[in-house]
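re: ur question from yesterday

yeah so i grabbed the chain u mentioned. its 139 aa long if i counted rite. heres the sequnce exactly as i have it in my notes:
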Amino acid sequence: MNLPFSGGCACGALRYECSAVPLAMLHCHCRDCQRASGTAFSSALAVPVAAVKIHGVVKYHEVIADSGHTARRGFCPECGSPVFAGNTASPQFLAIKPGSLDDPSWFQPMGNIWTASAQPWAGIDPKLPQFPKNPVFGS
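ran it thru and got these structure tokens back, copy pasting raw so excuse formatting
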């Protein structure tokens, strides 16, 4: 991975550039991510909001997640590509969907969260850490 890294939606109307190394790269298996992705989980890399420059319009959809916090899903209003996510539990971070990266080959998942909701038909890499809900760091 080279900094800054960049990406965008399928049609090019929404682009971003990030100047920070991702703090985490995860697969989330919560029901909200399953519904939003249309499959078993959603992958994301977490970065500080302040490190991201967005060019174009982002449309957001909000839901109350299983955690009780508001989850936001950011997508291109032109083509519908999912690009960002975030939540009120950690508003200082933005999740970027790795499929939106110009070079998604460097995405390396560090673990799986909300595995209590994981679908039995979606294999989870047993070498990666698994958390039944959100992990708690620093306690």
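noticed a couple things. The chain has one domain: 5-115. also The two ends are 30 Å apart (CA to CA).
anyway ttyl
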